[in-house]
Specification:
There is one protein chain. A 5-stranded parallel sheet has the order 2-1-3-4-5, sandwiched between helices. It starts with a strand and ends with a helix. By secondary structure, the chain is an alpha/beta fold. The longest helix has 22 residues. It has one domain: SGNH hydrolase (Rossmann fold, 3-Layer(aba) Sandwich). The protein is built from 6 helices and 5 strands; from the N terminus they run E-H-H-E-H-E-H-E-H-E-H. Helix 4 links the parallel strand 3 and strand 4. Helix 3 runs parallel beside helix 4 and helix 4 packs parallel to helix 5.
Length: 213
Protein backbone atom coordinates (compact mmCIF):
# COMPACT_ATOMS: atom_id res chain seq x y z
CA UNK A 1 0.00 0.00 0.00
CA UNK A 2 1.23 3.47 -0.84
CA UNK A 3 2.38 5.71 2.00
CA UNK A 4 -0.02 8.60 2.42
CA UNK A 5 1.11 12.19 3.06
CA UNK A 6 -1.58 14.67 4.12
CA UNK A 7 -0.73 18.35 3.64
CA UNK A 8 -3.11 20.48 5.75
CA UNK A 9 -2.79 24.23 5.35
CA UNK A 10 -4.04 27.52 4.00
CA UNK A 11 -3.66 29.35 0.68
CA UNK A 12 0.07 28.61 0.52
CA UNK A 13 -0.83 24.91 0.45
CA UNK A 14 -3.81 25.47 -1.87
CA UNK A 15 -1.45 27.20 -4.28
CA UNK A 16 -2.59 30.84 -4.39
CA UNK A 17 -0.80 32.80 -7.11
CA UNK A 18 -0.09 36.31 -5.78
CA UNK A 19 0.36 37.69 -9.28
CA UNK A 20 -3.30 37.37 -10.27
CA UNK A 21 -5.21 35.47 -7.57
CA UNK A 22 -5.44 32.28 -9.61
CA UNK A 23 -4.34 28.84 -8.48
CA UNK A 24 -0.92 27.62 -9.49
CA UNK A 25 -0.85 24.64 -11.81
CA UNK A 26 -0.02 21.19 -10.48
CA UNK A 27 3.57 21.40 -11.69
CA UNK A 28 4.07 24.37 -9.32
CA UNK A 29 2.10 23.65 -6.13
CA UNK A 30 4.38 22.28 -3.45
CA UNK A 31 2.31 19.18 -2.54
CA UNK A 32 2.25 18.21 -6.23
CA UNK A 33 5.98 18.84 -6.58
CA UNK A 34 6.50 16.72 -3.46
CA UNK A 35 4.43 13.95 -5.06
CA UNK A 36 6.71 13.93 -8.09
CA UNK A 37 9.79 13.87 -5.88
CA UNK A 38 8.55 11.02 -3.69
CA UNK A 39 7.34 8.94 -6.61
CA UNK A 40 4.74 6.25 -7.11
CA UNK A 41 5.16 4.65 -3.67
CA UNK A 42 3.53 7.70 -2.08
CA UNK A 43 0.18 9.43 -2.30
CA UNK A 44 0.38 13.15 -1.42
CA UNK A 45 -2.99 14.66 -0.48
CA UNK A 46 -3.66 18.39 -0.89
CA UNK A 47 -5.83 19.86 1.86
CA UNK A 48 -5.23 23.59 1.50
CA UNK A 49 -7.97 26.19 2.00
CA UNK A 50 -7.71 29.92 1.42
CA UNK A 51 -8.15 31.84 4.68
CA UNK A 52 -7.83 28.83 6.97
CA UNK A 53 -6.83 29.48 10.58
CA UNK A 54 -6.03 27.20 13.48
CA UNK A 55 -9.26 27.70 15.40
CA UNK A 56 -10.89 31.01 14.50
CA UNK A 57 -13.81 31.60 12.13
CA UNK A 58 -14.17 34.48 9.72
CA UNK A 59 -16.86 36.74 11.17
CA UNK A 60 -18.58 37.16 7.80
CA UNK A 61 -18.11 33.87 5.98
CA UNK A 62 -17.38 31.37 8.74
CA UNK A 63 -15.84 27.93 7.93
CA UNK A 64 -12.21 29.12 8.26
CA UNK A 65 -11.34 27.20 11.44
CA UNK A 66 -9.02 24.32 10.75
CA UNK A 67 -10.09 22.78 14.03
CA UNK A 68 -13.68 22.38 12.82
CA UNK A 69 -12.53 20.42 9.80
CA UNK A 70 -9.57 18.47 11.14
CA UNK A 71 -11.39 15.35 12.36
CA UNK A 72 -13.56 14.84 9.24
CA UNK A 73 -10.45 15.43 7.15
CA UNK A 74 -8.38 12.88 9.05
CA UNK A 75 -11.20 10.35 8.98
CA UNK A 76 -11.78 10.68 5.24
CA UNK A 77 -8.09 10.16 4.45
CA UNK A 78 -7.31 7.49 7.06
CA UNK A 79 -4.82 5.83 7.25
CA UNK A 80 -2.17 8.55 7.09
CA UNK A 81 1.57 7.96 7.31
CA UNK A 82 2.73 11.58 7.36
CA UNK A 83 0.81 14.67 8.47
CA UNK A 84 2.13 18.10 7.45
CA UNK A 85 0.55 21.14 9.13
CA UNK A 86 1.22 24.72 7.98
CA UNK A 87 -1.05 27.44 9.37
CA UNK A 88 -0.72 30.69 11.29
CA UNK A 89 -0.60 33.53 8.77
CA UNK A 90 -4.35 34.12 8.61
CA UNK A 91 -4.55 34.05 12.40
CA UNK A 92 -2.66 37.37 12.30
CA UNK A 93 -5.54 39.21 10.58
CA UNK A 94 -6.69 42.28 12.47
CA UNK A 95 -10.34 41.14 12.62
CA UNK A 96 -9.30 38.31 14.95
CA UNK A 97 -7.30 40.56 17.32
CA UNK A 98 -5.15 37.60 18.38
CA UNK A 99 -2.00 37.77 20.43
CA UNK A 100 0.80 35.33 19.73
CA UNK A 101 -0.24 33.49 22.88
CA UNK A 102 -3.81 33.22 21.52
CA UNK A 103 -2.51 31.77 18.27
CA UNK A 104 -0.29 29.31 20.15
CA UNK A 105 -3.29 28.18 22.21
CA UNK A 106 -5.40 27.74 19.06
CA UNK A 107 -2.62 25.75 17.41
CA UNK A 108 -2.48 23.52 20.47
CA UNK A 109 -6.25 22.98 20.34
CA UNK A 110 -6.10 21.83 16.72
CA UNK A 111 -3.06 19.64 17.25
CA UNK A 112 -4.62 18.13 20.36
CA UNK A 113 -7.83 17.30 18.48
CA UNK A 114 -5.80 15.54 15.81
CA UNK A 115 -3.84 13.64 18.46
CA UNK A 116 -7.05 12.50 20.14
CA UNK A 117 -8.40 11.24 16.83
CA UNK A 118 -5.25 9.25 16.11
CA UNK A 119 -5.25 7.80 19.61
CA UNK A 120 -8.91 6.73 19.65
CA UNK A 121 -9.98 6.07 16.08
CA UNK A 122 -7.21 6.03 13.48
CA UNK A 123 -5.79 2.89 11.94
CA UNK A 124 -2.33 4.25 12.62
CA UNK A 125 -0.66 7.33 14.06
CA UNK A 126 1.25 9.33 11.46
CA UNK A 127 4.59 11.02 11.76
CA UNK A 128 3.83 14.73 12.22
CA UNK A 129 5.60 17.83 10.95
CA UNK A 130 4.56 21.39 11.84
CA UNK A 131 5.77 24.02 9.39
CA UNK A 132 6.05 27.58 10.65
CA UNK A 133 4.98 29.73 7.67
CA UNK A 134 7.13 32.30 5.86
CA UNK A 135 7.35 35.75 7.38
CA UNK A 136 5.01 38.42 6.09
CA UNK A 137 7.00 41.16 4.33
CA UNK A 138 6.56 44.73 3.09
CA UNK A 139 4.89 43.54 -0.10
CA UNK A 140 1.74 43.46 2.02
CA UNK A 141 1.50 47.26 1.85
CA UNK A 142 1.24 47.12 -1.95
CA UNK A 143 -1.48 44.46 -2.06
CA UNK A 144 -5.23 44.17 -1.70
CA UNK A 145 -4.62 42.23 1.51
CA UNK A 146 -3.26 45.26 3.36
CA UNK A 147 -6.76 46.05 4.64
CA UNK A 148 -6.91 42.65 6.36
CA UNK A 149 -3.78 43.09 8.49
CA UNK A 150 -2.29 45.66 10.81
CA UNK A 151 0.78 45.90 8.59
CA UNK A 152 3.82 46.41 10.78
CA UNK A 153 2.27 44.56 13.72
CA UNK A 154 1.47 41.51 11.57
CA UNK A 155 4.96 41.52 10.06
CA UNK A 156 6.62 41.59 13.47
CA UNK A 157 4.33 38.92 14.90
CA UNK A 158 4.98 36.65 11.91
CA UNK A 159 8.68 36.73 12.77
CA UNK A 160 7.93 35.51 16.30
CA UNK A 161 5.41 32.84 15.35
CA UNK A 162 7.95 30.02 15.12
CA UNK A 163 8.92 30.40 18.78
CA UNK A 164 5.28 29.95 19.81
CA UNK A 165 4.58 27.02 17.50
CA UNK A 166 7.76 25.36 18.75
CA UNK A 167 6.14 25.17 22.19
CA UNK A 168 3.21 23.24 20.69
CA UNK A 169 5.51 20.92 18.74
CA UNK A 170 7.64 20.24 21.83
CA UNK A 171 4.56 19.51 23.97
CA UNK A 172 3.34 16.87 21.52
CA UNK A 173 6.85 15.65 20.57
CA UNK A 174 6.33 16.54 16.92
CA UNK A 175 8.90 17.84 14.47
CA UNK A 176 8.85 21.51 13.51
CA UNK A 177 10.67 23.47 10.80
CA UNK A 178 10.83 27.24 10.34
CA UNK A 179 10.53 27.37 6.56
CA UNK A 180 11.20 31.14 6.52
CA UNK A 181 14.90 30.29 6.72
CA UNK A 182 14.72 29.01 3.14
CA UNK A 183 11.33 30.15 1.82
CA UNK A 184 10.27 33.79 1.51
CA UNK A 185 6.87 35.29 0.78
CA UNK A 186 6.77 36.87 -2.67
CA UNK A 187 7.03 40.63 -3.16
CA UNK A 188 3.66 40.82 -4.92
CA UNK A 189 1.65 40.68 -1.69
CA UNK A 190 4.10 39.80 1.07
CA UNK A 191 2.02 36.76 2.06
CA UNK A 192 2.14 34.08 -0.61
CA UNK A 193 5.14 32.14 -1.81
CA UNK A 194 6.15 32.29 -5.46
CA UNK A 195 6.92 29.43 -7.81
CA UNK A 196 10.49 29.05 -6.61
CA UNK A 197 9.26 29.06 -3.01
CA UNK A 198 6.89 26.17 -3.73
CA UNK A 199 9.80 24.19 -5.17
CA UNK A 200 12.01 24.84 -2.14
CA UNK A 201 9.18 24.01 0.27
CA UNK A 202 8.64 20.69 -1.48
CA UNK A 203 12.36 19.99 -1.09
CA UNK A 204 12.20 20.76 2.65
CA UNK A 205 9.34 18.34 3.21
CA UNK A 206 10.95 15.73 0.96
CA UNK A 207 14.12 15.89 3.07
CA UNK A 208 12.03 15.46 6.23
CA UNK A 209 10.09 12.49 4.89
CA UNK A 210 13.37 10.86 3.97
CA UNK A 211 14.86 11.56 7.38
CA UNK A 212 17.50 14.01 6.18
CA UNK A 213 16.55 16.84 8.54
Amino acid sequence: MKKRVLCFGDSNTWGYNPADGSRYEEDTRWPCVLQNMLGSDYNVIEEGQNGRTFNTDDYLNGYMSGNYYIKPCLKSHDPIDYFILMLGTNDLKKEYSQTLEDICNDADILVDEAAKYWELYARKKPKVLILSPPYINDGLFRSNFKKDFEGKDAIEKSKLLYNKLELVATKHEYDIIDISIRVKAGNEDGLHIDKEGHKVLAEIVYEWVNGDL
